[in-house]
């Protein structure tokens, strides 16, 4: 399972000043998700876990996250 470890809704520059792994709202994870499970809402990634399954490249979203706010966890 992939989790978002940020809940900050500030824009990228403000988030970067406040937190080392805050979501910057860059939408990179949204673009690479083959299942369409990730949307950036109010400057933070949101995962629809009902769509986040059977990914052909599991964790591509977390691997693409430059800020480190997406992590892969074992459930």
Name the features:
Alpha-Beta Plaits, alpha+beta, 3 helices, 75 residues, two-stranded antiparallel ribbon, 4 strands, two-stranded antiparallel sheet
Which secondary structure elements does this structure contain, and how are they paired or packed?
Blueprint: E1 2-4, H1 12-18, H2 28-32, E2 38-41, E3 44-47, H3 60-64, E4 70-72
Antiparallel strand pairs: 1-4, 2-3
Write down the overall mean pLDDT.
90
CATH topology: Alpha-Beta Plaits
- Give the count of helical stretches: 3
At the first level of CATH, what is the class?
A: Alpha Beta
Order of helices and strands: EHHEEHE
Low-confidence stretches: none
Total domain units:
1
Shape: elongated
What share of the residues lie within helices?
Answer: 10-25%
Biggest sheet: strand arrangement:
1-4
CATH architecture descriptor name: 2-Layer Sandwich
Radius of gyration of CA atoms, rounded to a whole number: 12 Å
Task: Describe, in plain words, how this protein is organized in 3D.
It is elongated and about 35 Å long. A hairpin with a 2-residue loop joins strand 2 (38-41) and strand 3. The termini are close together. A two-stranded antiparallel ribbon has the order 1-4. A two-stranded antiparallel sheet has the order 2-3. It has one domain: Alpha-Beta Plaits (2-Layer Sandwich). The model has no long low-confidence stretch (mean pLDDT 90). The protein has helices at residues 12-18, 28-32, 60-64; strands spanning 2-4, 38-41, 44-47, 70-72. It has 75 residues and is of the alpha+beta class. Helices cover 23% and strands 19% of the residues. The protein contains three helices and four strands, in the order βααββαβ.
């Amino acid at each position: 399972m992939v989790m978002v470890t940020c809940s900050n809704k500030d824009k990228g520059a403000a988030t970067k000043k406040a937190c080392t792994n805050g979501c910057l709202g860059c939408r990179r994870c949204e673009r690479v998700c083959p299942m369409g499970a990730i949307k950036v809402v109010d400057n933070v990634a949101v995962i629809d876990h009902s769509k986040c399954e059977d990914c052909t490249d599991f964790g591509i979203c977390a691997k693409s996250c430059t800020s480190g706010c997406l992590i892969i966890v074992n459930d």
